[in-house]
Design brief:
This is asparaginase. By secondary structure, the chain is of the alpha/beta class. It has 9 helices and 18 strands. The chain has 2 domains: about 190 residues, Rossmann fold; about 120 residues, 3-Layer(aba) Sandwich (Rossmann fold), CATH 3.40.50.40. β5, α3 and β6 form a beta-alpha-beta unit.
């Protein structure tokens, strides 16, 4: 069915017992040796890095993004699989998706159980990801996990240890994998891809601040004072906080900080319903609502907007365009 390049970045799928816990130590060829290949597929491995995904930095993620583009510059490549730790997989996958304009699929996968586990899920997930990369087109960046196919946009880790680790709480499932076949159930909606960003010498700092009962502006102000060029405010409900936080957002925006507004609720969009510190006031103060994107992916959208321009007005425009689903580029399945 084709030539697939596997980019190995570490994670549980590449982890072994170290005496006190598991750590990503296996290279990509060792990971590939655990899984059967779908018939007709040839595989090449790129060992990019091998780290537990909570340790990933923006520099790691931008290196991965550029590597994906370099691999796809070869027209004989039919697709890409990225093996990745599950903790930050949703962030890296969304970053690649924001900048992905090629019809060939880039499929992220990983595992919840380490290498060598009797009931390990890594080999099956890897097989499914290879099959998905070889047989789908025009769907953007995907996540293949536990027999399911998810669009990168909106998908998040919803289970800490269970094998069915990923879902988009706000949308229907994109596809299923079984009996050697990938069944696509819907067509994802994706805005126009952003240009590939430059590799900055020092990536912009983007922080996340969560609201809660008794929440005040201290942490948001601290992030700005620490040099954050972007902040994701994780509100309550449909995206709400307090009048004091509204004032802090207004001051941050006036200083050129890009502020995005999401919610700590698992499903549903940020919606301008409430005032007195609610989303109505936060958006009026300059915060950009992120729809159904939750904190991790909202942060990636802010990062991409900051990398796209030095102008705060243009950054906000790019962020809104990256979040937009009103005028999407419709993709045929």
């Amino acid at each position: 069915m084709g030539r697939i390049v596997v980019i190995s970045t570490g994670g549980t799928i590449a982890s072994r017992w170290t005496g006190s816990g598991f750590a990503a130590e296996a290279d990509g060829r060792e990971v590939m040796a655990t899984a059967p290949l779908p018939e007709g597929i040839t595989v090449e491995v790129v060992d990019l890095f091998s780290v537990n995904s909570p340790r990933l930095t923006t520099a790691h993620q931008l290196t991965l993004l550029r590597t994906v583009h370099e691999v796809l510059a070869d027209p004989t490549v039919d697709g890409i699989v990225v093996t990745h730790g599950t903790d930050t997989l949703e962030e890296s996958a969304f970053l690649v998706d924001l900048h992905h304009h090629d019809p060939r699929s880039v499929v992220f996968t990983g595992s919840q159980l380490p290498m060598g586990s009797a009931e390990g899920d890594g080999p099956g997930n890897l097989y499914d990801a290879l099959l998905t990369a070889a047989t789908t087109r025009g769907l953007g960046v995907l996540i293949a996990f536990a027999g399911r196919v998810h669009a990168a946009r909106g998908t998040m880790k919803t289970q800490a240890v269970a094998l069915d680790a990923f879902a988009d709480p706000s949308r229907e499932l994109l596809g299923k994998i079984g009996f050697g076949k990938v069944t696509v159930l819907r067509s994802p909606q994706r805005p126009q891809a952003l240009p590939l960003p430059a590799m900055p010498e020092l990536p912009p700092r983007v922080d996340m601040v969560m609201h809660h009962a008794d929440g005040d502006p201290v942490l948001l102000n601290a992030a700005v004072a620490a040099g954050a060029r972007g902040v994701v405010l994780v509100g309550t409900g449909a995206g709400n906080a307090t009048p004091e936080i509204v004032d802090a957002v207004r001051e941050a925006v006036a200083r050129g900080v890009l502020v995005a507004l999401t919610t700590r609720v698992p499903a549903g969009p940020v919606t301008e319903i409430y005032t007195h510190g609610g989303a109505v006031d936060l958006v009026a103060a300059g915060a950009v609502p992120t729809g159904t994107l939750r904190a991790g992916q909202a942060r990636i959208a802010v990062l991409s907007a900051l990398l796209a321009s030095e102008n705060p007005v243009e950054q906000a425009r790019v962020l809104r365009a990256a979040l937009s689903e009103e005028d999407p580029v419709l993709v045929d399945a």
